[in-house]
Amino acid sequence: MNGDRDRLLDVYRALDQMHAWRGWHWWPDADPFEVIVGAILVQNTAWTNVERALGNLRAVGSLDPGVMAHLDPEELEVLVRPSGQYRQKARKLRAFLQAVKEAGSLEGLLGRPPADLRARLLGTWGIGEETADCIVLYAARRPSFVIDAYTQRLFSRLGIGPAGSSYGQWKDYFEAALAEPDPARRRELWARYHALVVMHCKHVCRKRTPLCAQCALAAGCPAAGLDGA
Hints:
Elements: H1 2-19, H2 32-41, H3 47-59, H4 65-69, H5 73-80, H6 86-103, H7 106-110, H8 114-122, H9 129-139, H10 149-158, H11 167-177, H12 183-203
Helix pairs in contact: 1-12, 2-3, 2-9, 5-6, 8-9, 10-12
């Protein structure tokens, strides 16, 4: 596992050199509720569409759990419509607001131990593993490694990762390899790592036309040269 850790940290440093200058919408100063709403709305759509929906909610002062909970279902659907699948996503937001109500407050929900919080999120309609881990990591600011299609694309191309393909196997692999004794340092590393992977796969290691000539990882990547460079 030490070898895996060294390889992953080498990748991390290379990604940081390539993308540290780029902006990221979920840095530590992001509002927790806005992070949660974004994590739900970004399912099956591009972040640019989510930004439009967040702008609608922000314009009417509804990026607050108490205010949003009092919106009519149809009004919420109209506000989140730019994110696509708006009826389902409005229902998912209402399900999350019910979880907040049962916990007594947003702070009460996010303040639960990470494993308990994750379990409660997974028990909420419309929240799967990736969304739950995003909420734990970026809204509750607790360590929980996020696995997404970008992660599996990049590390499969690099020939790094677990033997299996399930979400749990990938999550366990990264959390074991990138373990840190201090929870705050662990959370910071995992959050920044995930952000860098997303930015790299959006801008360089693209699905159909990867820009290998622009990638600092190309020398050690078995899949390098897919762009013909």
